[in-house]
Amino acid sequence: MLKNVGLKYDSMTPNEVSSSDTRVIITTKSEASMIDGQNVIIFSDVSAYPILFKAKILKNMAGNNQDDILIIGVDPGNRIGICILYLHAELQRMVQSSSADTIKLITLILQGIPAREKIVRIGDGHRGIAYSIAYEIRKRFKNEVTIELVDEFGTSRSSSSNRRGNKDEASARSIASRKGLLFK
Question: Full-prediction pTM beyond 0.85?
């Protein structure tokens, strides 16, 4: 699972861990009692969703030293680009094919990552889709989540790449990085 989320790791025995300077330890419930430390994650506690797992690891590594902010950038269109930023790091980029799947994913992320501040930034390029996503997120989370509509001008770069979704993901990243107008 660590390899799937793009994190580097070292495999160690419980004895090796005690003499290392490891910042985060992922282990089984039975081996956890053999390890002293606060940054222990029990593997059985880890969600089935790799992105939530990666967020938990990043939070343990960062501790309380960084801003606890989750930002989700959304590029609405026929293919909906999504970029998730947490603790100033990019967790993942992806493309969804429907508004319903996008709303489900955003809901899962907002519920699963306990950030102090949560922001969803949605591009205004396809207003119908943008407003529909914003409305559903507002309905589910009320004022727990800040929703912003972002001017998409300049977020789509022309690309010689013919790979589907790359452009949508890059646009979502740009949208996540821009301040928008508050959706009420």
Answer: no
Confidence at residue 47, expressed as pLDDT on a 0 to 100 scale: 60
List b or e across 45-64, with b for residues whose CB sees 16 or more CB atoms inside 10 angstroms: eeeeebbbbbbbbbbbebee
Q: What is the pairing mode between strands 117-123 and 146-150?
A: parallel
pLDDT for 50-68, tens place per residue? 788 888 888 877 777 668 8
DSSP string, the chain: -TTTTT-------HHHHHTS--S-EEE-HHHHTT---S-EEEGGGS-S-HHHHHHHHHHHHHTTSS--EEEEEEE-SSSEEEEEEETTEEEEEEEESSHHHHHHHHHHHHHHS--SEEEEEEESSSHHHHHHHHHHHHHHHGGGSEEEEE--TT-----S---TTHHHHHHHHHHHTS--EEP-
Domains of the chain: 14-46 (no CATH), 69-182 (3.30.420.140)
